[in-house]
What does this fold into?
Amino acid sequence: MTAVTARAPGKINVFLHVGDRMDDGYHELVTVFQALDMYEEVTLRPCFDQPDTVVRNISGNDTYPGLSPVHAVTLKGRFGSTAIPLDHSNLAVSAINRLAAQTGVHVPVEVEIEKNVPVAGGMGGGSADAAAALVAYAKLAGINDPDLLRTVGAELGADVPFALRGGFAVGTGRGDELSPILSSGEFTWVLATSVDELSTPVVYHALDDLRDSGKAPHAGDVQTQLADVLQAVGSGDAHALAQVVHNDMEPAAFGLLPAIAEVVDTGRQAGALAALMSGSGPTVGFLVEGATHALDLTVLLEASESVKHVVRATGPACGAHIVTPG
Ligand SMILES: C[C@@](CO)(OP(=O)(O)O)[C@H](O)COP(=O)(O)OP(=O)(O)OC[C@H]1O[C@@H](n2ccc(N)nc2=O)[C@H](O)[C@@H]1O
Ligand SMILES: Nc1ncnc2c1ncn2[C@@H]1O[C@H](COP(=O)(O)OP(=O)(O)O)[C@@H](O)[C@H]1O
It folds into this structure.
């Protein structure tokens, strides 16, 4: 049995409408995801040579009382030096634990995660780690059940089903109920990551507070806006999409981190077709016309003190898939 590598994409929400908080604490979303060609890569190396008696359940929690198939976790890649958990709460480890527990198939592995999506930036890097780990473990363990991967993915996080699917899709419910959208074109983004991080639940709570205190409007009817977004996506025209991108979380995130609004202004003044915070932020995506436009904008954004990295990406990109063996 040889090593298996799978990739899963980061994302930007080109449209993010946040409904009111539901009884389970989650918010009902109507979002349009676009997968970007920045991929997390998860490699699983079987390690049968290590005797079972020394296998430790690195999950060490009550949910998976059995031994975890995961012996070790390492990180690499452009964003691999960022602090993320390497225990049972790592989303790739959690994905493997859940899939092994659900299927009863236990293949001992070492996990390597190559992080190419900015961490805690609203671009779904952790969700992509989970999606890639699910696909890689399924391949290694001979589990041929896409529905099970989707179910386990949704248990791990609302964004995981989209990382599995990729492309363009409307997400409803928690964002995990997906309907694919056809698009005829390719869109180019320049993404400015922040020197600061934002926690997703903190931004959702801040939006609730703004709404409860009357400082932000409660969610209204979304159908017309959504129809416009679907038409723009279908046209493949970046100028058309630029007119309709929208993110309800922006006022909450800008309140928590005013530097995001400054970065948005910098990109707008530099001629971006549109400026849009990705998900719960703080990464800002700028829609551009193509490579030359992207380069000009990159130079200007790199001069901003609030910007950590500037990354170019195009979408739509494909969902989680096996890279090796072919
Ligand atoms: C905001 C979005 C937009 O795509 O993306 P990110 O900014 O995280 O990338 C998502 O809704 C994030 O999805 P994901 O990060 O997978 O969320 P989860 O792990 O399931 O949930 C983390 C927390 O976010 C809040 N949450 C998440 C989804 C949702 N529809 N309503 C919520 O209120 C809840 O407080 C939950 O406890
Ligand atoms: N593989 C992972 N396992 C567990 N946590 C992760 C993983 N990758 C990132 N994180 C953590 O999850 C949180 C959200 O990160 P991430 O998924 O990158 O961003 P976002 O939710 O904003 O799209 C951060 O606290 C980050 O440190």
Remarks:
- Residues 262 and 280 are 16 Å apart (CA to CA).
- The pocket of SUD (ligand 1) is lined by residues 13, 16, 25-27, 29, 31, 122, 124, 127, 157-159, 174-175, 200-201, 204, 279-280 (CB under 6 Å).
- Confidence is low (pLDDT under 50) at residues 51-65.
